[in-house]
Design goal:
Blueprint: H1 2-5, E1 10-14, E2 19-23, H2 34-42, H3 44-47, H4 56-72, H5 79-98, H6 104-126, E3 136-149, E4 155-164, E5 175-180, E6 194-202, H7 215-220, E7 226-230, E8 235-238, H8 246-261, H9 264-275, H10 283-291, H11 302-321, H12 324-329, H13 332-350, H14 355-372, H15 380-393, H16 401-421, H17 434-458, E9 460-462, H18 465-490, H19 497-518, E10 524-526, H20 532-547, H21 557-565, E11 575-577, E12 584-588, E13 591-594, H22 601-610, H23 617-621, E14 627-629, E15 632-637, E16 640-645, H24 654-660, E17 663-666, E18 689-693, E19 700-702, H25 704-710, E20 713-718, E21 721-726, H26 739-746
Parallel strand pairs: 5-7, 16-17, 17-19
Antiparallel strand pairs: 1-2, 3-4, 3-6, 4-5, 6-7, 6-8, 9-10, 11-12, 11-20, 12-13, 14-15, 15-16, 18-21, 20-21
């Protein structure tokens, strides 16, 4: 019986004439009351006896659940709500200490979940800044703090110290992002320069459809208060201040040096990998890498940071081992780990410290810290520690595909190689084949772990991604990253030319692999967006299989398989309306027909991608469902008649359209005679859906002002009514909500 009690907090001792059961320091049992409940819960400790030593990673899981809970709330918690959450956390910590030998881990989980809510709330409110409430056109002045490319392949500038004409500083966004179209993007200004241009700015757009990707949420955590474009020339007002932005300027100088030594797209690829500067990389190669499932090689993430620091660690340890006095007397392994960590920190600073690189550095920092503390470097504990640090620092990254895919791949690889260590000796891989075996296993495991997240976020599956990764990742690890370190050491003394040549061939190889494989028939298979709960179910089931110890872990396989099997079973919205009123999409016969071939192109692209449809906007608008009707477009679905007018001339026909159609959508404010028909889904919302009965007297009218408040809409025909779901429904006055919508919620 003593073995049963070991490590569980449950101790059973037997004397000559009595049996005593003792649960930690819990007071004597009572027939009823809190102590009896605590003792009953303490019995659970026997059930998780096998989890002792493996519970720490669950702390990261519970922290993530708390962060997810905050972002999923239908309203912003009040100060009292945050105070109550803090009180719950304090009580849970005290309870965990009190019953640490029994049900303590349960209270630790509660405390971590409460901490996740508090961390996400603090981060959200700490980033509050002015956001544009109107469409601005005029002079834009600011300092260049970021240069990249937009989805349309235009050079894009991020500006701080922003000044806008006739807009007071209190209402001026701290940062804006402007795409340079036409001749304006011929030459990007130097980093750190103060520039002026004439352009268009507006607030970041909300979700393109209910439950879809919310750009305004994304932009809020980038501190972007306005986004826009210009076609006018960029005027240089002041050259970069040498005392400010040194790392940014150094990064761009190194990028220019790399692209001078390696011409064309291979040089731009090298600059993106080594400095994080993607401004020279064109859309064609980028899309080919996405279609071949090797776009992760572009981002400075865990792979690059691991390859770089791993090479530096191995090289330093080898060089130190060549000096017997050091190798025999000092912990050279720890010295090498410290040196690799310093190189990783410089790489982080040089690349701009974006979220993906920061996450990668934290992961390798935890690993090398474990080496310096004589702990095993690569364990599920180190993965969990890295996740905790990332989530406490930037809780919003939990929602990003980078975080999800990075930690999914890392956790799956750690679990897979831990399982392989337990293989019978007779099944061991020969030493000569271990390298190739590790590459194959890593590609298969990481690809399988990240596939659901890639499909959910990017709406596609790369059919030949495994082949592309097997052909490119070894080149990245054995040639490009080590070669970059050697080139950096040899360039100052003028001996790096052969190394740059070898690097160029490696880069050309990877780009060629992407181009060839992306062109294979069936290389990309479109996938429709699953419901949010489905990706969460897949994640939690996979976490259970990875973290739970013992045979019960395989219980997670069933919900995992069911969630994946039901992926495409969810029906897509029958009717989608953009939040500008400028575009309507109707689903018929498994394909969405759009009301316009041009305009709201970003929204159209998101709708079609989420449908798993690879058609472009023009092709979707050519589908036969929509017919011209006067100055607008008319369609019918399940007996529901729609009319969409997007121009000023359509307003003159709006009243007659309202008499002949069930639903009328306008991109402008409706005429005063139709205000009685306007559907105003003004916040606050108390439900995710609204049931609107159809009327024979007038139509249901959605116009520009009403859609600006409600956000994008999804409509589902019902018998004699329409079910409406809004992108803004249930969101309350969240910190990232548009000011106009927040004001409506406050009323």
């Amino acid at each position: 019986m003593s073995g049963l009690g070991s490590g569980t907090g449950l101790r059973i001792t037997r004397g000559a004439d009595k049996a005593v059961t003792d649960l930690g320091d819990i007071a004597p049992p009572q027939r009823w009351g809190p102590w009896a409940v605590a003792r009953a819960l303490g019995g659970l400790s026997v059930g998780w006896a096998g989890q002792r030593g493996a519970l720490m990673p669950w702390s990261a899981v519970m922290l993530g659940l708390g962060v997810a809970l905050y972002f999923a709330l239908p309203w912003e918690p009040s100060r009292a709500g945050f105070a109550a959450t803090a009180l719950v956390m304090i009580l849970a910590v005290a309870s965990a200490i009190r019953w640490r030998a029994g049900i303590g881990p349960l209270f630790v989980g509660v405390a971590m979940m409460a901490l996740g809510v508090l961390a996400a709330g603090y981060r959200s409110h700490s980033l509050a800044q002015p956001v544009l409430t109107f469409r601005y056109y005029g002079p834009i002045e600011g300092r260049v703090v970021g240069i990249d490319r937009s989805s349309t392949d235009a050079v894009r500038l991020t500006l701080d110290q922003v000044r806008l004409d006739d807009l007071p500083p209190a209402r001026t966004p701290h940062r804006v992002r402007v795409s340079l179209h036409g001749d304006a993007g011929a030459k990007a200004p130097p980093p750190g320069a103060v520039i002026m241009l004439t352009g268009h700015l507006s607030a970041p757009a909300g979700a393109a459809e209910p439950g879809g990707f919310d750009f305004q949420h994304y932009a809020y955590f980038l501190s972007l208060g306005g986004v826009g474009y210009t076609r006018s020339p960029v005027v240089l007002l002041a050259r970069p201040d040498p005392t400010e932005g040194r790392l940014f300027a150094l990064r761009m100088r190194i990028s220019a040096e790399i692209q001078m030594r390696i011409a064309g797209q291979p040089g731009a690829f090298a600059a993106a990998v080594l400095t994080g500067d993607r401004s020279g990389l064109e859309a064609g190669p980028t899309q080919a890498m996405r279609d071949a499932n090797i776009a992760h090689l572009l981002a400075i993430s865990g792979l690059h940071m691991g390859l770089l620091t791993g090479f530096v660690y191995a090289a330093l340890r080898f060089l130190l081992a060549l000096i017997p006095v050091l190798a025999l007397r000092y912990p050279i392994r720890k010295w090498a780990a410290l040196g690799a960590l310093c190189v990783g920190a410089f790489y982080l600073a040089l690349s701009g410290g974006n979220v993906a690189t920061e996450r990668a550095f934290i992961q390798v920092a935890v690993m090398f810290a474990a080496v310096m503390l004589d702990r095993r470097a690569i364990t599920m504990r180190s993965v969990a520690m890295a996740a905790i640090v990332v989530l406490l620092n930037r809780p919003e990254t939990l929602l990003s595909p980078g975080f999800q895919m990075s930690f999914a791949a890392t956790a799956a690889l750690v679990g897979a190689f831990a399982a392989l260590r337990g293989w019978p000796t007779g099944m061991a891989v020969p030493s000569w084949a271990k390298g190739a075996f590790a590459v194959v296993v890593s590609s298969v495991v990481a690809g399988a772990a990240t596939a659901p997240f890639a499909a959910a976020h990017f709406n596609q599956i790369a059919a030949y991604g495994l082949i592309a990764n097997l052909l490119s990742v070894p080149v990245m690890g054995s040639i490009i990253m080590p070669g970059a370190v050697i080139a950096a050491l040899l360039t100052p003394i003028g001996l790096a030319a052969p190394v740059w040549a070898v690097l160029e061939w490696g880069l050309i190889w990877i780009l060629a692999v992407a181009e060839v494989i992306a062109a294979w028939p069936g290389a990309v298979r479109p996938v429709q967006t699953p419901p949010v709960w489905m990706l969460g179910a897949v994640t939690l089931a996979a976490i259970w299989v990875l973290l739970w110890q013992g045979p019960l872990r395989w219980l997670g396989v069933l919900p995992l398989a069911m969630a994946l099997g039901l992926w495409n079973s969810a029906a897509r919205p029958a009717i989608l309306i953009a939040d500008t009123g400028g575009l309507v999409g109707v689903m018929a016969d498994g394909a969405r027909a759009l009301s316009r071939a041009r305009g709201d192109g970003f929204v159209a692209g998101v709708w079609l991608e989420n449908d798993g449809d690879r058609a472009d906007q023009a092709a979707a608008a050519a589908r036969p469902l929509w017919q011209a009707e006067g100055e607008g477009m008319a369609a019918q679905i399940d007996g529901l008649r729609l009319w969409h007018g997007s121009g000023q001339r359509a307003l003159a026909q709006a009243q007659s359209a309202c008499a002949n159609y069930d639903i009328v959508i306008l991109g402008q404010p409706a005429p005063a005679a139709l205000t009685h028909a306007r559907v105003e889904l003004a916040p606050p919302y108390h439900a995710g859906q609204a049931l609107l009965p159809l009327s024979d007297a007038h139509c249901l009218l959605f116009d520009g002002p009403s859609l600006a408040l409600s956000g994008a809409l999804a409509l589902t025909p019902a018998e004699g009514a329409v079910i409406v779901t809004s992108a803004a429904m249930g969101q309350g006055a969240r910190p990232w909500s548009p000011p106009t919508r927040q004001g409506a919620r406050a009323q």
